[in-house]
Design a protein that fits this description.
EC number (chain B): 1.2.4.4
Largest sheet of chain B: 7 strands, mixed
Order of helices and strands of chain A: HHHHEHHEHHEHEHEEEHEHEHHHH
Largest sheet of chain A: 7 strands, parallel
Number of domains of chain B: 2
Oligomer: heterodimer
Keywords (chain B): Mitochondrion, Oxidoreductase, Transit peptide
Strand order of the largest sheet of chain A: 1-8-9-5-4-2-3
Radius of gyration of chain A: 29 Å
Protein name (chain B): 3-methyl-2-oxobutanoate dehydrogenase (2-methylpropanoyl-transferring)
Order of helices and strands of chain B: HHEHEHEHEHHEHEHEHEEEHEEHEHEHH
Shape of chain A: globular
CATH architecture of the largest domain in chain A: 3-Layer(aba) Sandwich
Helix content of chain A: 40-55%
Subcellular location (chain B): Mitochondrion matrix
Number of helices of chain A: 16
Structural class of chain B: alpha/beta
CATH class of the largest domain in chain A: Alpha Beta
Radius of gyration of chain B: 20 Å
CATH superfamily of the largest domain in chain B: Thiamin diphosphate (ThDP)-binding fold, Pyr/PP domains
Strand content of chain B: 15-25%
Strand content of chain A: 5-15%
Largest interface: A-B, 71 and 73 residues
Number of domains of chain A: 2
Cofactor (chain B): thiamine diphosphate
Distance between the termini of chain A: 56 Å
CATH topology of the largest domain in chain B: Rossmann fold
Strand order of the largest sheet of chain B: 3-2-4-5-7-6-12
CATH superfamily of the largest domain in chain A: Thiamin diphosphate (ThDP)-binding fold, Pyr/PP domains
């Protein structure tokens, strides 16, 4: 009681005099006092006087009235042509036959899996799918330059990255079939992978939200003194979102070990990149726009992508600063199974990219030149991949869906009272209509 | 977001009108004694206002958790409301730092920090400016654990933001956006009403394994003063506080509205002999249904009051829930005394707000029904 009386008096005191007390501490009233008492004018800052003249160091003043316009474009780094010839042999990463074969096989597996699962969606056996046709070199080239301790934030068209890091066809198919082995517990649409074991933060549909998150993630890595970085993948369409601007600016000013990896495949669903931006692509925004070190790379050249990502990782981890990579490529497939891209682009355009810039053929030609690959091996690996995906699909389709209790779990770390109640409501309801819902398709 | 006028804004905070002369005419003769919450084994006490209590809570959070960081617009020099004063000097610019002026960036950055295992305490300068971060908060933070099947979460993320009327805040320095977030599964929403509770609830929010939005009543930053324990203590989320026991009618509110409601309760008692039970909800989501249900079963009557507009406000959620659970106990329709369904108007603030007189009238009508 004594205490509350004391508090009472405090409150009364502060309320009666609140206006004057508060104003006494404000800048406005200090200014008022200063003027009235005719004291020498003083700076209200407690900081020592220092004039920031940094701009004089960073740019020149001129008396020429010139409007700046875009004149120089960032060049695109490429070292291996369509025939598999490396123009600068010293820049060939020179992986062993074993590693290169694994890379190639992963690209073929991705391609084969995409073809099958695309058709499977068309048959209505999974609800949705997105292929990676044409972007295989980006996936394997970049993933092979990373460390497993590097955290990945992805958009949704990076399946090859996950395969390279040890995600299996089973993992992919289980998620697409939303069965009880899906680590995401069947809650998200197909292609929204997430995996603790390969350090992949779960994918979500809202575009570009993962960019500022990746900056936060890499800040945490820096704070913890880790020798790792965070890489974040996104398309050129996603780069138009506000979150792109937020992330680039935060990463630069807070100096975080983040690799921004843009897949510029020229199309955001039906919107061509010329309707997406007027500047020098995404790379053009990096150096002058945000003060971020930037590289543009031929996304269909696996060695160029690998070299660029490896260098970016070195800069990010050693210097603790962000790097922007823009990989130029082409989305050969439809945007998704819900899209028919022939309504907004020509077959000639698609075929041009398939024939003259094909990333898989480029690596195949490289291997053939080294006598590492034959047509027989090609046939065998395609057949093997088809078999693997088909078997995986057969197994996944037979499994139950996750248990119905998973509707309510993980909203919070614990079940809140209303969730416990709503779960009971559903259970009671299902007892009334056991035959109206596909209960037996779900795990217990 | 050009017109925040932050520094001058603090200086010109004006205590709410119930201290003004016109209000005093119909106010009870005794000054308002807002009862302090007793913290068991509290140890040493120190007089603190609300912003000092918040600062003290964050000081403890940074001291006890080396993975914790504080960031936002202007938090480095101490914050436009002084909540982060001295913390950068004490814990270093790596842990207490300014961000670029971009709310969606602050929110996304905080989510990433938390997902990577750090404790993220993000400040949004005014609740009115939280909307650019709405996508990150609603689509990302709230769903992070659920959508990953509990492989990942951003539970160590807390958003702090000043909310509510302040006398002259106009459209964009006055809003109470709690019900926008209360409707989002995955988020917890907390609003304290006194310095002691602000400290205990903020520490609990920071350590809570779920993302929390913590709205601070900026009107109370300087005007509410209590003897606050200087030690480390938490007040559990999801539990309402019965500020004053009564038997005739239940009154529910939160944040700065609690003092308005206490005044209305005292008026009702002095003028009409009505015994009001006053409940501070404290946590908006998940809210303490049992506490309100038990009270209404006892009193048979309910008034819910908040500054936010009436339509779609959190009072609607409370009223419908109580109607479902206490139908046979209700002696009168549940009353909602809220802001009007208009943007928050500058010069009409005194008329706009659900003040003690509007609440007093609602109590009177509910009793007379």
């Amino acid at each position: 009681m004594n205490q509350s009386i004391k508090v009472l008096s405090n409150l009364v005191k502060s309320s009666n005099t609140s206006r004057s007390l508060i104003n006494a501490g404000s800048r406005r009233s200090v200014l008022f006092k200063t003027l009235n008492t005719n004291n020498t004018v003083r700076n209200f800052s407690t900081k020592q006087s220092k004039i920031d003249k940094d701009d004089e160091k960073t740019f020149d003043y001129t008396d020429k009235l010139v409007v700046q316009k875009l004149e120089t474009y960032i060049p695109c780094y490429t070292i291996m042509n369509q025939d598999g010839i490396v123009s600068k042999p010293e820049q060939d990463p020179n992986f062993s036959q074993e590693v290169v074969t694994k890379m190639y096989k992963t690209m073929v597996l991705l391609n084969t899996m995409d073809s099958i699962l695309y058709d499977v969606q068309r048959q209505g056996r999974i609800s949705f799918y997105m292929t990676s046709f044409g972007e295989e070199a980006i996936h394997i080239g970049s993933a092979s330059a990373l460390d497993m301790g590097d955290t990945i934030f992805a958009q949704y068209r990076e399946t090859g990255v996950f395969l390279w890091r040890g995600f299996t066809v089973d993992d992919i198919v289980n998620q697409c079939c939303t069965n009880d082995l899906d680590d995401g517990k069947g809650r998200q649409m197909p292609m929204h992978f997430g995996s603790k074991k390969i350090n992949l933060q779960t994918i979500s549909s809202p575009l570009t939200t993962q960019l500022p998150q990746a900056v936060g993630s890499s800040y945490a890595q820096k704070l913890a003194g880790e020798k790792n970085c965070t890489i974040v993948y996104f398309g050129e369409g996603a780069a138009s979102e506000g979150d792109f601007h937020a992330a680039m600016n935060f990463a630069a000013t807070l100096s975080t070990p983040t690799i921004f990896f843009c897949r510029n495949n020229k199309w955001a669903i039906s919107t061509p990149s010329k309707e997406q931006y007027k500047g020098d692509g995404i790379a053009g925004r990096g150096p002058n726009g945000y003060g971020i070190r930037t590289i543009r790379v031929d996304g269909n050249d696996i060695w160029a992508v690998h070299n660029v990502t490896k260098l970016a990782r070195k800069i990010a981890v050693e210097e603790q600063v962000p790097v922007l990579i823009e990989a130029m490529t082409y989305r050969v497939g439809h945007h998704s199974t819900s899209d028919d891209s022939s309504r907004y682009r020509t077959v000639e355009e698609i075929n041009y990219w398939k024939e003259t810039k094909n990333p898989i053929n480029r690596l195949k030609n490289y291997m053939v030149r080294k006598n590492w690959w034959t047509e027989d091996q090609e046939k065998a690996i395609v057949a093997e991949s088809r078999q693997l995906v088909r078997e995986s699909l057969m197994k996944a389709e037979k499994r139950k869906k996750p248990a119905l209790s998973e509707i309510f779990n993980d909203v919070y770390s614990e079940l809140t009272p209303n969730l416990i109640e709503q779960q009971k409501e559903l259970e009671e309801h299902l007892k009334l209509y056991p035959d109206e819902y596909p209960i037996d398709q779900y795990a217990k | 977001m050009l017109s925040r006028n932050s520094s001058n804004f603090i200086g010109s905070l004006i205590a709410r009108s119930f201290h003004s002369s016109s209000a005093t005419r119909s106010a009870p003769s005794a000054p308002i004694n807002y009862p302090s919450l007793k913290i068991e084994n509290a140890g040493e006490l120190q007089k603190m206002n609300l912003f000092q209590a918040i600062n003290n809570a964050m000081d403890i959070a940074l001291k006890t958790d080396p993975k914790s960081v504080i960031f936002g617009e202007d938090v480095g020099f101490g914050g436009v409301f002084r909540c982060t004063v001295d913390l950068r000097d004490k814990y270093g610019a790596n842990r207490v730092f300014n961000t670029p002026l971009c709310e969606q960036g602050i929110a996304g950055f905080g989510i990433g920090l938390a997902a990577q295992g750090a404790t993220a305490i993000a400040e949004i300068q005014f609740a009115d400016y939280i909307f650019p971060a709405f996508d990150q908060i609603v689509n990302e933070a709230a769903k992070y654990r659920y959508r990953s099947g509990n492989q990942f979460n951003c539970g160590s993320l807390t958003f702090r933001s000043p909310y509510g009327a302040v006398g002259h805040g106009g459209h964009y320095h006055s809003q109470s956006p709690e019900s926008y977030f209360g409707q989002t599964p995955g988020l917890k929403v907390v609003i304290p009403s006194t310095p002691i509770e602000a400290k205990g609830l903020l520490l609990a929010s920071i350590r809570e394994p779920n993302p929390v939005i913590f709205f601070e009543p900026k009107l109370m930053y300087r005007s509410a003063v209590e003897e606050v324990p200087v030690g480390d203590y938490e007040i559990p989320l999801g539990k309402a506080r019965i500020v004053r026991e009564g038997k005739d009618i239940t009154i529910v509110g939160w944040g700065a509205q609690m003092r308005v409601l206490l005044q209305a309760c005292q008026m009702a008692e002095e003028k009409l002999g009505i015994s009001c039970e006053l409940i501070d909800l404290r946590t908006i989501q998940p809210w303490d249904v049992d506490c309100v249900v038990n009270s209404v079963k006892k009193t048979g009557r309910l008034v819910v009051s908040h500054e936010a507009p009436k339509t779609g406000g959190w009072a609607a959620e409370i009223a419908s829930t109580i109607q479902e659970r206490c139908f046979l106990h209700l002696e009168a329709p549940i009353q909602r005394i809220c802001g009007y369904d208009t943007p928050f108007p500058l010069i009409f603030e005194k008329f706009y707000l659900p003040d003690h007189l509007k609440n007093f009238e609602a109590i009177k009508k509910t009793i007379a029904y």
